[in-house]
Amino acid sequence: MEKLGIPTATVCSDEFYSLGKAEAQCLGVPGLPIAVVPHPVAKLLPDEVAGLARDVVDEIYRLWHEDADHLREEFIEKQPLAKQQMRYTSLFEGNYTAPNAPERMNGPDDLDGVNRLFYSRGWTDGLPIIPPTPARYEKMLSGTNLDVNQLLSLIEPRQGKATVGKVAINAVMSGCLPEHLPVLVAVANALGNSDLNLKALNTTT
User: Fold this and answer.
1) What are the phi and psi torsion angles at 78 (to 5°)?
2) 118/192 Cα distance (integer angstroms)
3) Would the pTM count as exceeding 0.70?
4) Which of 39, 178, 181, 193 fits a 20 to 30 Å CA distance from 137?
């Protein structure tokens, strides 16, 4: 509706504001006006829901009536309030599609150093990985005849592009063998099936 010039007011809890901004950007409306309410909402009693609605109604009214260009600029710049100290700073802060991300990076030579680097960047949850070196990547690709740039699916909710090459990189990091790659390709294809409804699975609490 925003793309058609019809004012909207998306309402989400503060816990999901970052996700809301990311999805809006993926859908081509990076300045989508979002009214934020406190999290959680699901367990509120009716009187509490009514109070929450009263608290946010003025903001919703503003989003419906204020100049659209001004709102777009405001919400492009607006950032979520961090509830806790982040343990890393993203290389591509504020840019979820990361168009300028390098295809390769130089990292430590030792396994411990690579794992510390990936964890400090927020790329892993702390579980160990196998460094996806060019040699390991090429060996993994021996498990398929598909083009590395072939798109298998868009991974919800941020519409990440699951190409054969990206799947191969993740397969290396997970410790898979080349003969496992066809199975992972099939899984990546399945994740894009609308019957699975991956967005609901990945965004629910």
Assistant:
1) -65, 130
2) 27
3) no
4) 193
